[in-house]
Amino acid sequence: MIGQMIAAVLGTIAFSVLFGVPRQYYTYCGMVGGAGWCLYSVLASYTPCTTTEATLFATFLVVLLSRFLAVWEKCPVTVFLTTGIFPLVPGAGIYWTAYYLVTDRPAEAADNGFAAMKAAFAIVLGIVLVFEAPDRIFKRKKGRLSH
Amino acid sequence: MMKKMESGQDESQVLEIAMEAGHILLENGAEIARVEETMERICRHFGVEYENFFVLSNGIFTTGNRSGDGTGGQYAKVQHIPVKGAQLDKVVAVNQLSREIEEGRYGIEQIKEELVRIRQMPGKGFLVQVLASGIGSACFCYLLGGSLVDSMVAFGAGFLLYMFVLLTDKSHISKITKNLCGGALVTLVCICCYRLGAGEDISHMIIGSIIPLVPGVAFTNGIRDLADGDYISGAVRLLDAVLVFLCVAIGVGAMFLIYHRVFGGILL
User: Fold this and answer.
1) pTM assigned to the model
2) Which of A146, B48, B63, B265 has its CA 20 to 30 A from that of A86?
3) A34 to chain B: which residues are within 8 Å by CB?
């Protein structure tokens, strides 16, 4: 669990580098990614939540953290959001869909493809809903262009 | 496409820098609402009032007028902005600049210079990007249940993958082909390593290594544009993301099939 947590943080930082995030934000990006993954894996393995629900709640956390950081650091939320969401993207689901398709197991392919789509929709929903929250919740002082 | 009349000089210059700022933002992965907002802020600050922007995911249309009734200096410009890779530090820099402009710290000439500087900000070096891709792949492989050895293989595959991505960056190969090849390349590397005895679970290795191809910026921005009601741009960006996802999956699948045909007997 701790190893995975470190992997999530490091992996997110690696992608911040790829996306050209300014150096001073690397740690924040890593923290957002790590926190999102942590919540996801705790929810998915220790509670009755399905993986889709776990993805949804983890997305909530990632977007909330990103918006807070964006206001504190006066920096576009895109920076934290794009990188922080990475560990939640259903990369594995896409792989399994392709894999079962070519191994001629359509039922499993459909299951996995459907699960990947549900996870993607959970991310969409999570992002859209948290962005409905008004800016002032996140503002401590007069911050501008906070989103 | 620019018309300048008598005293429209200042307005034109303001609209010109607003457009340049918008261009940099759009090109480097900002969402539509931010582009529009930044451009409007710059115009407001310099007292240009009768301007209109129409921003799409790959173009900006601007018109400006000295007065509301269509007389006086006029400005019109359309800029096509091809979709390319995001470099978020440029978005941060323009964002910061627009905040400083509002505080009145810059004149028009200085802003022009700043924008040129931002545009020329160097990206990360080849080796740094390739290493980051390798490390990212290894981490995600481990994250999704791979062993340490699997992660090492994923590191190698992610490393090679991004070398391929960067080397084909300048060429005219379409995005579709590029991602197909990327997916296939990763699968090939992983199959080879697996056959040579490195790695325990080929699936985890491949899953980890394809992560650098995941279009994270297009995906999240597409969602945010849709949420903001920018349906055209949101739909285009999501289409872009979905297309990349599909191509990578097809690339992986195709390589498995080829392997199967050549060596017989599907592995694992």
Assistant:
1) 0.85
2) A146
3) none
